[in-house]
Design goal:
heterodimer, A: 6 helices, B: mainly alpha, 81% helix, globular
């Protein structure tokens, strides 16, 4: 755990250096564009977290291992936090570039729906006193929510869009290698941070369960 | 399921209240929008679905209340055989209830807002049917989950509404197009999305209902 924490700190520092120092200033947007090194890895972590919730939920229903339930719980919490960070950094980025904090653009909408969906998930967990039942219901909701993500995605895209298309997978004129490297460093750093948070939280939840038992 | 329908038929408890509620909704819509016809026409698809959803939330939220109040929840848990049969039965009952309420709302909208819904009716039925199945599929599942939970009246809509966003967007958009007299083909992508959502929701409901009804 200690080692993981230390490695995460180093990786985050490296990400900071890469994003703020090595990466060149973007021509049209200027330094504001550097927020991408925070924004994009946060979304990645959010989706990763919700995927983990999905898998852990299925595992819980199949095996009834409390560890799987704790993993789902921890991952959902971290996922909601990172979704929040995504929305916040996106707003800060949007103000100078789009001229507004918020717009009902497709991707903004779908991420905010994810946010409320998993907030509801945490709310449900908080409302049930019986631990075993809470775990079961939460697992069902975790599965429903995961299946819903693609549906939300498509419906909202057809509804409207104005967001720049995803910049990483785009064919054609690629981004300079430095930018991609800086972004990748941050991806790794944020993923490590995710693993660290979840491990910490799972540990806490286990202690809580032990204390209650 | 027959038991639920029979009960509903005998008591008409939920249906009467929902009908009255739908009527009140129309009043509220009218008060907020004023007499401006143009504005009304623009907002109509949204209002229609707002009415469906609000009455659906009330109706579905009560789906398992009878069992809880009469201490039959244990009986549901102990019921032999496949629990998914209970889910399908409840779903069918809820669907029927929602369809009746929706039909009443449509008539009320037609009368009070002086609309001619008849030409668009066949297409409208398709859209509303698909949307209602999706709404009721998840609604039934969540209703069973929230029945045994603290603050259930609050938690049920809070859980259901975000999950229902795709269905709502699709139905409102499709309803809008249909009311403007466009053929169903023009909204085929929305209908496909709705159909996909229906299949996914019902499948997930059938598969996970076992776990909800465990204790």
């Amino acid at each position: 755990m200690r080692v993981l924490g230390a490695v995460t700190v180093v990786a985050l520092a490296a990400g900071l250096v890469a994003g703020l120092g090595l990466a060149p200033r973007e021509v049209t947007q200027g330094n504001v564009q550097r927020i991408m090194y925070l924004h994009v890895p946060s979304v990645w972590v959010a989706y990763l977290a919700f995927a983990v919730v999905f898998v852990a939920s299925i595992a819980y229903l199949a095996k009834r291992a409390e560890a799987a339930d704790r993993l789902a719980h921890a991952s959902a919490e971290v996922g909601v936090v990172f979704t929040g960070i995504t929305i916040a950094t996106g707003s800060i980025w949007g103000k100078p570039t789009w001229g507004t904090w918020w717009t009902w653009d497709a991707r903004l909408t779908s991420v905010s729906i994810l946010f409320v969906m998993y907030l509801g998930y945490l709310l449900l967990r908080g409302m049930i006193d019986d631990r075993e039942r809470g775990a079961r219901y939460a697992a069902v909701l975790g599965i429903v929510a995961a299946f819903n993500i693609p549906l939300v995605h498509f419906s909202v895209i057809w509804w409207r869009t104005l967001h720049q298309p995803p910049s990483l997978m785009k064919p054609g004129p690629a981004m300079p290698r430095v930018i991609i490297t800086a972004l990748l460093v941050n991806f790794v750093a944020f993923s490590l941070l995710y693993v660290y948070f979840v491990a910490k939280r799972v540990h806490l939840l286990r202690r809580e369960a032990e204390a209650a038992a | 399921m027959w038991k639920d329908l029979l009960l509903e038929h005998r008591s008409k408890e939920t249906l009467n209240a929902l009908f009255f509620f739908a009527l009140l909704l129309l009043f509220v819509f009218q008060f907020t929008l004023g007499p401006d016809r143009e504005r009304l026409a623009g907002a109509l698809p949204g209002l229609l679905w707002l009415g469906f959803i609000l009455s659906g939330l009330l109706g579905l939220g009560r789906a398992f209340v009878v069992e809880r109040e009469n201490d039959c929840w244990e009986a549901l848990l102990l019921a032999p055989g496949d629990k998914s049969a209970i889910y399908v039965g409840k779903l069918a009952g809820n669907l029927l209830l929602m369809f009746i309420v929706e039909a009443m709302l449509l008539v009320l909208f037609g009368v009070f807002f002086n609309l001619d819904l008849v030409p668009a009716l066949p297409a409208l039925v398709v859209v509303i049917g698909l949307g209602t199945v999706g709404f009721a599929a998840i609604g039934t599942l969540f209703a069973a989950m929230t029945t045994q939970v603290r603050a259930r009246e609050l938690l049920f809509p809070v859980l259901l509404l975000p999950v229902q966003v795709p269905v709502l967007l699709a139905t409102v958009k499709a309803t809008e197009a249909v009311l403007l007299g466009e053929p169903l083909g023009a909204v085929a992508h929305w209908l496909k999305l709705l159909a996909a959502a229906d299949v996914v929701y019902v499948a997930v409901g059938v598969l996970t209902f076992d776990f909800v009804l465990e204790g």
